[in-house]
Amino acid sequence: MELTREELLQMVALAEQERFCPSAAVLMEKEHGAELQEHLDHCARCRSRLESSEILAGELAFEKLADMFNEDIFAQTVPQQFEPGQVWQLGQSYGGWGAYACYYHAPQVLVLDVLPYDVARVAHISSFGALKHQGDISLTDDSSDCFAEFWNVYSVPTSWLDVYVGKVRAGLIAAGDLLFHAQPEQEGPEEGSPIDMFRQHELFHSMHFAMKAMSTVMELTEAYYEEQQRQEIAKYLGKLGKEERWSPVSVVARDDSLYAVAAASAMLKLEFGEGDERNVCLVEYDDGQLSYSFDYIPSHTTYAVMLLLDNVPVSVKNEQGEESTRVIVDSDAAQIRHCGLDEQDFNRCTLLVFQNTGSPR
C-alpha cells in the first residue's frame, strides 16, 4: 500500500531520529554536556522525549532488549577475511557527537569492494523500507525491509568493520551497480519530496563517517603504493651497476601527454612566480627520439633514468649506436636517445628515476 505524503514525512522523522538523535541512555545521563544541551536547543523531538519519563523508560528498555537480541543474532562465526557482499556494523567509537550537535549512530554497511590496502568501499544501509527509491536495493526478499543505498557509497578502513551481521544473496552487488548506473538523472526523487529529504539526511549522516575515515584511508593507500614503488624500484637497482651508489627517487606512470613528469620527493623543491612549483624529470618523445632533461634541480646532481614498458626496461641508443636501458643525466645538461617505441607505447611507459649519491665505500 502506497503511503501518503504525511505518512512518508513521519517515516523521514523517525529515520532522522535513528541517525542523529542521542539514545535514551545518553538523554538520561545526570550531567548534560555541551553537545547534548546544544542538541536539545534545536531538537523539539528530544526535548519532548526528555520531558516524558515514561517514553524514555520505554526506549531504554527497548534498547537493552535490542542489545540482548543483537548479541544472539550476531553471535555467529565471523569470516576470516572481508569480502564483497558482507554486512557489517561500523564500530560505535566512530560515531557519537559531531557536526551541528548531532549524535551520529554507527550504521550498518554493505561491503561493495575490498581493496588490497585494508580499505573497504561500503554502501549505507537503511531499515526504512518505505523510503526505498531508485538506486536502492533490498537486502532481503521482502521489499519493505532494509536496503542498501548504492548512491551513498564511501570508503572506510576494514578495521572499522566491527560486528559481522551476515552476507547478502549472490549477485546483489552487481544488480545494484547496474541499476544505479542505468538510472537516468531525471528519475531521482523530486526535489523537496519526503524521499529527497530522507536522502539529504542520509548523505549528511554518511559524510560524518566518510570524512572521519578519510585521513586513515589516505595513509593506508599511500603506504601501500609507497611499498609497491619500493619493491618496483628494488628490482632495477642492480641494473644500474655497482661502481656507484644510487638512491631511488621516484616511480611515475606515464600519462597521455607528451611528457613524463616525475615528482621527485628526494629533489629540492623550488617555488617561483605565483606558486608555480617545478621539480621534475622531463622525457620528451618525438618520432622515436627521446630528450631527457631536469628542470630546476640543484647543480652538479646526476640521475639515472629508466623507462619500463610492461615492466620490461626499454633499450635506447645514443648517437654512437651504443645501447643501454639507463640514461645518465646531469642536472646541468640534457641527453638525446633513440628508441624503437611508437608514441602509443611511449605513453604506456613507467618512468624510474635514481639519484647518484656517490661511490660505494
Would you summarize the structure shown here?
By secondary structure, this protein is an alpha+beta fold. The protein has eight helices and 21 strands.
What's the mean pLDDT score? Answer: 79
Which strand-content bin applies to the residues?
25-35%
The total strand number stands at 21
Indicate the multimeric state. single chain
Describe the protein's topology:
Layout: H1 5-20, H2 24-27, H3 34-42, H4 44-51, H5 53-73, E1 86-90, E2 96-97, E3 103-104, E4 108-115, E5 119-126, E6 136-138, E7 147-157, E8 161-167, H6 172-182, H7 194-237, E9 245-253, E10 259-261, E11 271-272, E12 276-277, E13 280-286, E14 289-295, E15 302-309, E16 312-313, E17 316-317, E18 323-324, E19 327-330, E20 334-338, H8 343-346, E21 350-358
Antiparallel strand pairs: 1-4, 1-8, 2-3, 4-5, 5-7, 6-7, 9-21, 10-13, 11-12, 13-14, 14-20, 15-16, 15-19, 15-21, 17-18
